[in-house]
Amino acid sequence: MVDMDKKLVAKGVRRVFDDAEKGALLALHDFDLEAEHGEIVALIGPSGCGKSTFLRLVAGLDKAQGGTITYGGEEIKGPSYDRGFVFQETNLYPWLTVEKNIAFGLKARGVYKQQKDRVQQMIDLMGLTGFEKSYPHQISGGMAARVAIAQTFVQDPGIILLDEPLSALDAFTRAIIQDEILKMRDRFKPIILMVTHDIEEAVYMADRVIVLTPRPGTNAGEVKIDMPHPRDRISPEFIDLRHQIMDMLEFD
Amino acid sequence: MSLNDRTMWLCSKFSLAKPKEIAKMAVPLVAMIVMMVVNGAAADVYPEGETTVYYPIFIRASIVIYLVCVVISIWFEYFRRHFVKWWGTLTFIYLFFSIYNLCTLKSGMFELPYFPSFESMLAYVFQHWDRTLGDAWNSVSLYLQGITMGGILGFLWGSAMGYSKHANYWLNPIIKIIGPVPGVAWVTISLVLAPSNHVAALIIIASTTWFPLSVNLAGGIRSVSRASIEKAQTLGASNWYIIRHVVYPAAAPSIFTGLFMACCFSLTSLVTAELMGVKGGLGWRISWAQSYVAYDIIYTIAICFIIMAFILITILFIVQRHTMSWSKEVVQW
Ligand SMILES: Nc1ncnc2c1ncn2[C@@H]1O[C@H](COP(=O)(O)OP(=O)(O)OP(=O)(O)O)[C@@H](O)[C@H]1O
Ligand SMILES: [Mg+2]
């Protein structure tokens, strides 16, 4: 079980990419973020402002040149199953069945025997029942996204990083999976950081929306969303929040 | 399983052949019967005094074996699926036998010694079956030793090149210079330098296995997507686990392509080595027969060789089909 008091704290994060042709490219600069368990924080900003870069830093897949990122007071040094990442592309392992894809992390960590039931539980929870033995090329894009999400949630990580996992899906499937993610959040209470281009998705799911400036990305503002779930997408309050965020995204 | 499920399952294994399938299976049988009738009706005229002994046995044995397969096929769906599709090939082969028989033994239209009758080839196999089996065994064991050595070397070499930039710096030029040289070119040198002809042959076969396997494997490893490795890292997999459970499975298609090429190239090397110095094996038997102008033996050995190569490659593809059932894009055989 995860420790619910742990906080994710990022302060003054800076990431510069060295490009042989274009020289140094400042992707992210002086970026701050704090998040607690049970919270969904959405990151929104223009393309190329460093959202994915920030998630990679939190995941430990990349190193910042400045600032600190800590989780429960400890600095993040490298990747860990405690910080799950659902990538922009689903990236399932094509040689593994749905079931084995979901069990991948448990097996890799040698805890599969003890936590076997979790896999079936996750399959049922994500509506994948009946497709356990299917291979990734046999399932639809929506299901692939579900498997990718289940792959991470089954490990019960403290932090879950979602990098536009639903952007390739049709609106209908997306709405269903959004609800499924909310259901998972209520059950496991991780810290969820979610990058999205879809303002409606952010307002529908998140507790807070953090808006980033164009590159070099930094905090442009924050919107708190204090609506109870399930949220009504056409209520005046909802639409008002969408406008508020849209206004913040008008840079020039 | 409920009773109903069980019946369903059994029905899926045992189902009666459809009329169309039975018709297909009948065609090769007709070809075999035609073959038997033609052989019985026409007299053996060329060369004078030749009598057929083994050819009729061959036809009858073919018919019996084929009938057994047909009977199995009528009920067993799985066997039938793989059996029926050969109907065209089998018909063609047996018709070819008939025509060839007419052109040689029955008329002398094709002249000796260049076109030995099928009867004389069968006679060689039946009369010298121990020798033929021995030759085949020599070839197969030499070949297996060679590709095992080359396979292990290629696997390590390709892995090193795929994983490490430093290893690649030193290993890549070697493979670029030595790799494309055909096995034939090494024959004389290695026969002179190696302590024995057997070792020389191993070196030649191993080198032609090593090259395609390591090039394909290294390419396969390098093209494993970063994202699938990073995903495994965030799921808590260790580097060693990632190598075994992500990198090699992802590189499997390249590995099989490499193995396929390696098996084909190495067969050439095997024959070359045997033709040029190794004492024993099918290739050696060919050069031995050459000195006696025994074309029937040469043809027989060539056919044995084709059968051997076919079996080897088929085994490889069966293994591939089983390990790569997850993929739609595998090379089909
Ligand atoms: N490995 C890298 N090497 C060089 N530059 C990079 C690298 N990764 C990202 N960048 C650059 O850093 C900037 C931020 O990239 P990032 O992927 O974080 O953007 P993003 O906000 O996720 O954009 P999008 O919304 O389009 O996904 C971009 O300009 C990108 O070109
Ligand atoms: Mg991105």
Radius of gyration of chain A: 18 Å
The overall average pLDDT of chain B, rounded, is: 87
CA-CA gap between termini of chain A: 46 Å
The structure class of chain B reads: mainly alpha
Strand content of chain B: under 5%
Per DSSP, what share of the residues of chain A sits in E-state strands of 2 or more residues?
25-35%
Q: Please give the count of helices of chain B.
A: 14
- Show unreliable segments of chain A: none
Explain how this protein is built.
The complex is a heterodimer of chains A (252) and B (333). With 252 residues, chain A is an alpha/beta fold. Chain A has a domain at 92-156. Chain A is built from 7 helices and 10 strands. Chain A has helices at residues 51-59, 98-108, 112-125, 141-153, 171-188, 199-205, 236-248, and strands at residues 8-19, 23-35, 40-44, 66-71, 74-75, 83-86, 159-163, 191-195, 208-212, 219-224. In chain A, a hairpin with a 6-residue loop joins β9 (208-212) and β10 (219-224). Chain A starts with 7 loop residues before the first strand and ends with a helix. The model of chain A has no long low-confidence stretch (mean pLDDT 92). Chain B has 333 residues and is mainly α. Chain B folds into 2 domains: 3-127, no CATH class; 129-323, MetI-like (MetI-like fold), CATH 1.10.3720.10. Helices cover 79% and strands 0% of the residues of chain B. Chain B is built from 14 helices and no strands. In chain B, α9 crosses α12 (239-276). Chain B is flat, with a radius of gyration of 25 Å. The mean pLDDT of chain B is 87. The interface between A and B is medium-sized, with 26 and 22 residues.
